[in-house]
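S.,

As promised, the zinc ion run. Input:
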Amino acid sequence: MQTVDHIICGDYVLTMNEKMDLIRDGAVAVKDAKIVDVDISENILKKYSSEKIIEGKGRAVLPGLINTHTHAAMVYFRGLADDMSLKDWLENHIWPAENKWLSHEFVFDATELACLEMLKAGVTTYNDMYFFGNSVAAASKKMGMRAVIGAGIVDFPTKTGNSADDYISNAERFIDDWKGDGLIIPCIAPHSAYTCSPDTLKKVRAAAERLNVLVSIHISETEWEVDEIKLLYGKRPVEHLDAAGFLNERVVAAHCVWVEDNEIEMLADRKVGISHCMESNLKLASGFAPVVTMLTAGVKVTFGTDGAASNNDLNILSEMSTTAKVHKAISGDPTVLNSKTVLTMATRWGAEVLGLGDRIGSIEKGKLADIITVDLKKPHLTPMYDVYSHIVYAAMASDVETVMVNGRVLVNNGMFVAADEEEILQKASEWGRKITLWSNGVME
Ligand SMILES: [Zn+2]
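Predicted complex:
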């Protein structure tokens, strides 16, 4: 008998591997942050022993969900400004609030809250685009979460820099500081083609090549953006970025709502990964990304929540359900985006577009142990005919029972155990009180 750190059992183990193996009455053996074996539980319990065996009756075991685009710290602006256009929301509400409040302390505290929310909803990895990257990284690491963190780049002054060159040199330092960390993967995150000049994008591309990191960017979120880029450069956004040599398999593009067929071909050809942010696009009435056409063209589409101020949560389970239903409705075809495809987008493909396909995204021997369990003993999950269907169409964040990242249990029986949840909520309320006073005009 080999001793392992944990054995996680389940009535169903959804490996989400290439063959989509589903193991009935299965178990996963975990040692030193890695998956050492996955098989039927009878075989696992014969070969391995552990002091920590997570009971599997009435549970499904699956890879942690992956949020491929968010701005985690924006959870502190959730509900501060709703029901308006993206441009009005950003320019008249979010940017002034960020200008007033952003600091290392704000971003650290807010990111802790975001990690707490995501982990309790079964999200084990997220891709962040924001400022104060060191604070995002430190908070994520404290919470035990895996994160691909992009140092934000724009052309205008903010609290973290005066010019694109400032942001790029900050980004290079940030990448140097965190490269090789076990949980934090630094990347570079130019905001968009309308906030970054062609010269800035060229420098970002060169830095990404030199430092061998992922590039995360917003592309074609709104019709306004397409008109603006056409006005400035005479091309649509994807055409503009492609002509600048910016697009390749290292790029994760958030949104891609307003992309035409020739642009979809470019995205497929350059192997750009897409982060589809359905609920944010719905709430800001940005439009409907042509997800079915992109998938048919061979583009890898994954799920992002975008920031909580435009969603308004960081829940990938609800993104899966909403996305599948909306695209069935708009395509007039209920057979598109079936539950297995949707869950693949939220797990294995999410890992692949973040450049982590060899490490996470499925339950396979040798991969890192980012694993969740879902409690199936619920009225809305009983009886069980198809576990993929239940996870995608019926499961809720509150059904997530165990969450393991890098072999460490962070959520146990639905309770966050890796840090003090009460303290995180208290800090959030205190910041909220100050922001309310400010937004009411009481504070300068
Ligand atoms: Zn975004």
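The pocket of zinc ion is lined by residues 69, 71, 218, 254, 306 (CB under 6 Å). Residues 91 and 170 are 24 Å apart (CA to CA).

- D.
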